[in-house]
Amino acid sequence: MVTDKLPKAVIYKDGKLSFLDQTKLPMYEIYEEQHTPEQIYNSIKMLKVRGAPAIGIAGAYGLVVSVKKYINEPVDKFIMELKKTGEYLNSSRPTAVNLSWAVNRIIQRAENSFFNSSNELWYELEREAENIYNEDKKICANIGRYGAELIYDNFGILTHCNAGALAVSELGTALSPIYTALNEGKTFKVYADETRPLLQGARLTSYELQTAGVDVTLICDNMAAYAMSKGLIDVVIVGCDRVAANGDTANKIGTMNVAVLANYFKIPFYAACPSSTFDNMTLTGNDIVIELRDSSEVTHFGGVQTAPDNMKVLNPAFDVTPNELITGFITEYGIIKPPYVINLENILHKGRK
């Protein structure tokens, strides 16, 4: 099975939390044990752990680990520190909704529980974080099952950034259909955009796919149009970090470029994500807060300066793909097609039951 070969982004065992430092991939596989909220915040902020579902899982476990030192305090003091730490961890990356969703779920579990001791409450929150992890595994498997129906023998698939096992609990979102199709014996080719400026496609996606035995070809971001024009691409599958109520979708910078090209070449463009990524409190893409990152990510390449000193830089981490460019969303409940305002709300309603 493919899952036996894939790396784990987040490992929690016997009360200890470790993240695979994805900034060191593909050359080194280094797991760092996480001890403090400051370390966990930095790991998320510096993309040592990244991908919307994975940082949600990291946030949930991270919050639980961070407040363990308060288990001998009164329950009201414990919950106060839990909220304070949760707010701090939430601020590490504002665009992906899964982080705040998972952290808030841990906090709500504490507020809705009735325990006489903080120690008992802490173990309940640990179980809730484990539930979030296990639920994500099932979600990823279902996304893979539905998404694999879109992949046929001899297909060419384009993906952008990394939405595989390194971005979730297991399998991935955008890559889960690919792994599922591979398990089903289908033959196809994957083209992975390098994904500037941090090369998640080159460092992470191509590494994952190659490790799993997928026929993968790495291309520069500006080669997508060439690949499409030559008939190499039959479907585009990407992940996403936040979906507004109208279907506008935030994903790694460069995703909108791919969607525009797919629309021009009449190639289906799908975004794969769990229903927790749908945010009906955000009405359109214009309301999504876009994280701006440090200029050095653009002025330097592989640690070497590639731009003049004091160069002005615009470095958004995400862009927003308009809903009209999206063929559908691959979710744990099936493939969602327009009209998105209605159908995404129906999915959220199903998830609340």
Automatic annotation (TrEMBL):
GO molecular function terms attached to this record: S-methyl-5-thioribose-1-phosphate isomerase activity
Site, Transition state stabilizer: residue positions: 161
Organism: Mucispirillum schaedleri ASF457
PANTHER family, per the entry: METHYLTHIORIBOSE-1-PHOSPHATE ISOMERASE
Record EC number: 5.3.1.23
Designated name of the protein: Methylthioribose-1-phosphate isomerase
Record: active site: 241
Lineage: Bacteria, Pseudomonadati, Deferribacterota, Deferribacteres, Deferribacterales
Pathway(s) annotated for this protein in UniProt: Amino-acid biosynthesis; L-methionine biosynthesis via salvage pathway; L-methionine from S-methyl-5-thio-alpha-D-ribose 1-phosphate: step 1/6
Annotated InterPro entries: IF-2B-related (IPR000649), IF-M1Pi (IPR005251), IF_2B-like_C (IPR042529), Initiation_fac_2B_a/b/d (IPR011559), M1Pi_N (IPR027363), NagB/RpiA_transferase-like (IPR037171)
Keyword Isomerase: yes
Keywords: Amino-acid biosynthesis, Isomerase, Methionine biosynthesis
Catalytic activity of the protein: 5-(methylsulfanyl)-alpha-D-ribose 1-phosphate = 5-(methylsulfanyl)-D-ribulose 1-phosphate
Role: Catalyzes the interconversion of methylthioribose-1-phosphate (MTR-1-P) into methylthioribulose-1-phosphate (MTRu-1-P).
Domain of life: Bacteria
Keyword match Isomerase: yes
HAMAP family in alphabetical order: Salvage_MtnA
GO terms (BP aspect): L-methionine salvage from methylthioadenosine
Record: residues binding substrate: 50-52, 93, 200, 251-252
UniProt record similarity statement: Belongs to the EIF-2B alpha/beta/delta subunits family. MtnA subfamily.
